[in-house]
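Reopening: structure tokens for the calcium ion complex, inputs below.
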Amino acid sequence: MTFDRRRFVSRGLAAGVATAGLAAPLVARAQSATFTWKMTSAYPKGSPFYFDGPGSATDLAKRIDAMSGGRLKIQVFGAGELVPAFEGFDAVRAGTVEMNHANSYFWTGKTFAAQYFTAVPFGMNFQGMNGWFYDGGGIDLWNEVYEPFGMVAMPCGNTGVQMTGWFKKEIKTVADLKGLKMRIPGLAGKVYAALGVDVKVLPGGEIFPALERGVIDAAEFVGPFQDRRLGLQKAAKFYHTTGWHEPATVSELLVNKAAWQKLPKDLQAVVENAAAACNVISEGWCQKANSDAMEDLINNQKVIAKPLPDAVIKALRAETDKVLAEAIAKDPLTKKVHDSYKAFQAKYNRWSTYSETAYHNKVQA
Ligand code: CA
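Re-run output (same inputs, fresh job):
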């Protein structure tokens, strides 16, 4: 009897193929399914950081396309193209679009807890926020807050620490805030108002003319790169730096939950990993862009950059605590998010005094 090796091998292979053959069509079908989604943005086409450039909305779409081998295509629409700037939340909720790219603090009128997933005054920096999001239950809470709306969310960008803003006159005391007409939106606006600031809410494009004409005395926008792009340094020379109001402003990727659940697991992983990449890459871009812009503002454009006085920061902190205490008293879900955020922040701040802050103050400075 001869051992027919050739026949054995071919039979073995055939058996293998037959076994694989049962599963192959299912795998092939899942992996060949393609999806074309729409994503709206709260920012206009061409906006650096938000819409174009490393880690932006269009970059996110490109990464998802590349990582999925073209199986998930995201069509990106700037503010006003499909829906107005601040209607992305409702569009995703209704399923008109599958995704929206914005900041969750635009939705505080719908659910106040959304504030914590963008930035709270005197809150955490980029590193602390990421610790809370990815390992401290932050993203889970974000999804809990959006559960009643049928949506899921994740961080997909970060500006890093923002600047207090531009002032025609230097702020030296708390009394200097009284009657000051300042462009400042959101929660920080409430805090300033409590200290006597006449708060104005203007869209980005209207800040420069208002500041130049003296309709306002001061204005907050983002940071050196974005502020210089609006020309704010030509209308006011004092640049107060301490970004107490937005210590690390997070961009939000909002996804319709029903659409999310229809995505195969591997494509869900693609979206999550592309968003995490944009979270880091966009922040890195901001560090480079702001370093360059700050140097130009100080060296070439006669800008005087300095932090707010300690007494002013102390007063802002006390008012922030009051505003947040009122918000958590009104809404148990906000309290739940606040408690998680603040507990994480307290521990992170203690650790940071030994790590990042110690390094910055003792070594890097
Ligand atoms: Ca801002």
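Confidence is low (pLDDT under 50) at residues 1-22. The two ends are 84 Å apart (CA to CA). Marking as resolved unless the reporter disagrees.
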